Amino acid sequence: MPPFCPQRFIRQIMASGLLMFATIHFCNAGDNKMFGRLDVLFWTLDNPNSPVTINENTLETQLQLDNSDYSVNSFPRISFGKEVGDDVFVEGVYFGTRGFNGTSTATGNNDLSLPGAVPLATLDFFNADSMTLTTSANIQNAELNLRYGDPEDFQFIGGFRYFGLSENLNIQSTDSDSGTSNYRIKSSSDLFGIQLGGEKVVSRGAWLARATGKAGVFGNQMQQSTFLGDFNDTVVLRNFKTNGSDVSFLGEIGASVGYLITENCSLEGGYGLLWIDNVARAGDQLDFTDAVGSGTDLRQHGGAFLHGATVSLVYRY
After folding, report:
1. 207-245 pLDDT, tens per residue?
2. pTM for this structure?
3. Rounded Cα gap, residues 137 and 129, in angstroms
4. Residues 222, 225, 227, CA angle at the centre, nearest 5°?
């Protein structure tokens, strides 16, 4: 029997029409001592906007980073918790996905090039016939929080959070006169720190509204690696790795409305946003200059923005 895969399981439910744009919450209420929550997130991730391919004759942009923008991806967020004192709860949260991917191709006739000076030092990235931009992203998040207050009214949230964002980017260029070569970049940002926030629930009969916000300043360990080849990648022009660290901000907010189907079960729908400052995005590492040390620096002051909708099935026990 293959191992259980939460993402595949959720997508199977969605495909069967039983759960569409769904989030399942297992929430604490009243005198209950345990709670859990399973969110299905339908998020998209932005991409930096800068040109990566131009027409040599007109200097017009043929490909830019957001042409390979990440589409909406669905993945679960799992939370479990236990009451450890009067209105004091310990909560663990995890979510992650490797499902962000994007591809875009520009086709020319011996007239495509990278921007800047670097293509003049190459064969495959100057006077090219086609260029393909491919991007992918991996997100991992883990939290250990304390919640204090009434879960049916207002709770303070405070705890430790890890958030990781890694990306792969590749520009593959084909010149019928010389060959096919790649400009590959890998980047990663690993954030560790303390977050604070709160959650407010308002009930009116069978209807309820929920708003949650969390934010913190995090230490960030970052890394980028670059490879630039030429003449069918047999000539290596760049091949190095750079590390660094910085302080980053992460903030997350979400809001939903719900309806009590039974005393212990309700249906919710909402929207969530998560943003980060000072991260090493793969697209920001592209360096089209041609000088000693070009591309060796770590560009670590980019931003990342994730957002998407949810529909929630809430169960209290």
Report:
1. 999 999 999 999 999 999 999 999 999 999 999 999 999
2. 0.86
3. 27
4. 165
